């Protein structure tokens, strides 16, 4: 009793010889593509090593962040590796006289090319899936995760006895941390406002999240600023003060790039969620500008 054909066999009717050639092409394609992606991932991930060294991120977070870039690498490298594998695969069969045996067995040129066509068709379908669905989704997750690490999660990476630069214009020092998360001996150098560089000292404080933005509540402290007009030191003491730990140069929510959007979103973009530099790339927006009086 013969087994029923699989979905692949129904879509691509193959002979034993076809399956042999497809197996060789699939093994070569998997090996070369995996090696190329690993090399590209290693080169690109070096840009994020500073997040691990400077911000103290764990290896798990680093791998999760850089792993979201793999689908975009695969979408670029898969057509190239498919072409090379098919080219060198048939070249190897020619040098090993396998194609000569196939011709002697009565196979035509189209029959010998069928495994390569099937392999290229499968790679084409995968590329369509990657570019139309998987890559936009993974790239959006990557941008969102990266934004959270650089502008939010870094606030929770403050270490005891270390001057932690949360951004290029804010540095925080904490003498100690309690088990319940309370901070003691807090020093903050706040240079986010060019006309007002402030030094903030507090006995203790705690971190809270307000509207998805990290803040620190300071108790029993002082805020010191130098007046640029007369050079005097202004000192403001407080019992309780609330400051946010994000950079003023970064918005609470970033607009989405064109590479993060699906086909439906590209055809019907929302101006509120689209980056201003990308609005001119949409055909709908360009048509509106051309037809508007």
TrEMBL record:
<feature type="transmembrane region" description="Helical">
    <location>
        <begin position="62"/>
        <end position="90"/>
    </location>
</feature>
<keyword id="KW-0472">Membrane</keyword>
<protein>
    <recommendedName>
        <fullName>Lipopolysaccharide export system permease protein LptF</fullName>
    </recommendedName>
</protein>
<keyword id="KW-0812">Transmembrane</keyword>
<feature type="transmembrane region" description="Helical">
    <location>
        <begin position="20"/>
        <end position="42"/>
    </location>
</feature>
<dbReference type="InterPro" id="IPR005495">
    <property type="entry name" value="LptG/LptF_permease"/>
</dbReference>
<keyword id="KW-1003">Cell membrane</keyword>
<feature type="transmembrane region" description="Helical">
    <location>
        <begin position="115"/>
        <end position="135"/>
    </location>
</feature>
<dbReference type="Pfam" id="PF03739">
    <property type="entry name" value="LptF_LptG"/>
</dbReference>
<keyword id="KW-1133">Transmembrane helix</keyword>
């Amino acid at each position: 009793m013969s087994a029923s054909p699989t979905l692949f066999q129904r879509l691509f009717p193959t002979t034993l010889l076809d399956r042999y050639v497809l197996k060789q092409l699939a093994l070569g394609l998997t090996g070369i593509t995996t090696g190329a992606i690993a090399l590209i991932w290693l080169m690109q991930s070096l840009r994020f090593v500073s997040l691990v060294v400077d911000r103290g991120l764990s290896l798990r977070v680093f791998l999760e962040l850089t792993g979201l870039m793999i689908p975009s690498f695969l979408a670029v490298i898969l057509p190239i590796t498919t072409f090379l594998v098919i080219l060198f695969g048939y070249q190897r069969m020619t040098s090993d006289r396998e194609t000569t045996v196939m011709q002697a067995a009565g196979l035509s040129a189209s029959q010998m090319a069928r495994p390569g066509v099937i392999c290229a068709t499968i790679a084409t379908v995968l590329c369509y899936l990657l570019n139309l669905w998987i890559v936009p989704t993974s790239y959006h997750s990557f941008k969102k995760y990266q934004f959270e690490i650089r502008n939010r999660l870094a606030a929770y990476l403050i270490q005891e006895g270390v001057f932690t630069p949360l951004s290029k214009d804010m540095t925080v020092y904490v003498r100690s941390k309690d088990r319940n998360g309370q901070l003691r001996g807090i020093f903050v150098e706040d240079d986010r406002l060019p006309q007002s560089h402030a030094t903030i000292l507090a006995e203790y404080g705690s971190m809270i999240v307000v509207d998805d933005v990290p803040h620190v509540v300071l108790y029993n402290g002082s805020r010191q600023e130098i007046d640029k007009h007369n050079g005097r030191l202004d000192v403001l003491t407080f019992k309780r003060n609330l400051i946010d730990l994000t950079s003023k140069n970064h918005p609470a929510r970033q607009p989405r790039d064109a590479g993060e959007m699906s086909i439906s979103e590209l055809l019907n973009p929302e101006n509120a969620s689209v980056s201003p530099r990308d609005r001119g790339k949409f055909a709908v927006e360009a048509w509106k500008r051309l037809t508007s009086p």
